[in-house]
Amino acid sequence: MRRFLVFLPFMLFIPLFSFGQKQYTLDDCYRIALENNTTIKRAQNDINTNALDRKTAQYSILPSLAYSVNHDFSYGKNIDPVTNVFVRDRFSGGSTGLSLNLELFSGFRRLNTIKQSAYSLQAANYAKKRIELELLSNITQSYSRLLLDKEQAAIGRNNMQTTTKTLVIIKEKIKTGRLTKYEHYTFNARLNSEKADLITVQNDSLAALQELKQFLNFSYKDELIIASIDTTLLKDIFNTPINATEFIETILKTHPAIKEAQMNEQVARLGVKVAKSSLLPSLSAGAGIASNYNSNETITDGSTMPLNKQLNNNLGQNIGINLDVPLFSKKEFVNSVKKEKINVSNAQLATKEAENTVISNTLQLINEFNSAKQKYKATLAAWQQNNLSYNLYAEKYKLGQISSVELLTARDILNASAATYLQSKLELFFRYQLLLLLKTY
């Protein structure tokens, strides 16, 4: 019993599994998730899509060039594409041409669309960072939960071993008449309770493990063993001061959720400018070269006129400028501008909501970290005192000065104290990790 109590405060130093098996640290889980998580990959696809949209917007300011060719078969009364007169004959012919179009002015619509696509691309990048931060935070919590379950399971197994050994001793004492069967019933009931508690912890551990595998995009068949934390860092973590005001001011400048909302706000503002461009005149220029031919066209000797000669003879060119002035569009364009202004208002509200959410969540993390420090200090002192108290109860029980119920009560207090202490160590470590993630992103 004493040997178990001596080693209990150092359990987080001891590997939970046998040597030779691959153990994943928290940093390993971060790295694997950033590489494999499907949500991250979808966010990257959104970035790629926005990058293509930006290229499309940039190329839209260039002139468009198109080549066309067609061939028709006509029967009965039709217009000859070469002579442009009505004929009652069966013939085949067609036309070919090259056209060039260039938008000279469209109310700066295309330029604003390019700027808009650039902000959309930045928003997509910040969205990915936001998703990464949320993912890593979830991994941190799952890792902490899984590690706590494994530590509690280890404590539970040790308690079961101790209870089993005690039962063996009790049976021997019952045979010699030194104890009654009442003592055996009490400890046997405790052993069954400890088995039930262990099953509960193991089930929760399996749920946490599957959750972590999902974050890492591991198959449910894949083995995943997590490594213990380095508790030597707890002293430095405990002595790390966090100024809430300074920390929040720093986070507000860099948090990806806020930056994403700000980029979306810029997209909405440019959407107003794009909509207003529909109210302005647009000017475009175009040019083209075209020709046509008739497969039945003949020359004076009755032979068919060569195709290249027909194309040269019928070659035509054109150039023009087009001015389009919107006079009345049944308020379609005006209402479009109003809708875009509403989008700007919504984007501003979204930015404010993002800031409020970040402030609230950050304050909560800071408060939880500070509480974890105080809890760690208090539970350490409580565990040490309960450890001494239990050792005294164990000695008294050996001397027959107390009953088994009193001993079990003392052990319950010690076990609860040990579990709370282990939980406070993990909570302090992982609360600090969550703050580091916020600062990193």
TrEMBL record:
Record-stated family: Belongs to the outer membrane factor (OMF) (TC 1.B.17) family.
Signal keyword on record: yes
Entry GO terms, CC: cell outer membrane; efflux pump complex
Subcellular location: Cell outer membrane
Cited InterPro entries: OMP_efflux, TolC-like
GO molecular function list: efflux transmembrane transporter activity; porin activity
A matching Pfam family: OEP
Signal sequence region: 1-20
Name of the protein described by the UniProt record: TolC family protein
UniProt entry keywords in alphabetical sequence: Cell outer membrane, Membrane, Signal, Transmembrane, Transmembrane beta strand, Transport
